[in-house]
Write a structure and sequence with these properties.
alpha+beta, 4-stranded antiparallel beta sheet, 2 helices, 4 strands, 26% helix
Length: 103
Amino acid sequence: MTTQLTIKRVSQTLLILLAAICCGVTPASVLAQGPVQTKAKLQYQVSDLPGLGGTSNGGNSINDQTWVAGYARLPDRNRHAALWRNSLLTDLGTLGGPNNSVT
C-alpha cells in the first residue's frame, strides 16, 4: 500500500511539473523574478497662459524649464510671437509684418 501511495505522489508531482513547463513557468523563473518594479508616476501641471487681450493665444512648444513658446493675439486680431516663463507673458512682437509666432 505504501508503494502505491509513493508512486501516486510522484506521478502527481511530475504531472504538476509537466503542466508548469508547458505553460512556460519554471522554478528558476519564479525565483528570479525578485521584487516587482513599479512604473514612475507621470507628473504634470496644467497652467493658464495669459494673453494680450485678443481672442486667442496658444503654445506651440515647451522645454524642460517649462518655458512655452507660441503666439498671442492682440485686440486688433494681429498675432504676435509670445514666450511664457513661469506663467508670465513676454510679447516678442513680429518680424515686421502684422503676424508672427514662435515654435
